[in-house]
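User: What would this chain look like folded?
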Amino acid sequence: MKLTRVVLIVPLFLAACSQDPSGVRLTRDSVPQDVKVNARVEPVFYNGKTYQVSITPSGDGAMNLSIAGMSAGQGKDATAMSSSVLHHFACKDSQKAMMSGPATFDGGAWKTSGRCG
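Assistant: Here's the prediction, encoded as C-alpha cells.
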C-alpha cells in the first residue's frame, strides 16, 4: 500500500515542474556596471602599533590597499604589511598575494594594489 502511494506521488511532483523557460528566473539579463563598493576598513596590529587598513576591490579583480597611520619613512614596513594584509583578508590559504609594486606615500597614507594568485 505504501509503495503505491510513493509511485503515485513521485510522478505528481515531477509533472508539477514547469518546462516553460519563462517560468522562474533566477538571474537578470543585464547587470548594472556602476556598482559602488565601500572600502573594508580593518584595524591591523603591526610592530607594536595599530594601523587602519582599507581594502577596496577594483574592477579588474585587483585590490587597492590604503594604510593610514604610518609615517613617510616607513616604506619597507608599508610594503611588507600590505602583502601580509592582502593575503590574510582577501586570498584563500592556497593563494599567494602578488603586489603590483611597492607601496607609495601620498602625504597621508601608503597606497598599493595587488591580487591573489
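Strands lie at 40-46, 49-57, 63-68, 97-99, 104-105, 109-116. If you want, I can go into more detail on any region.
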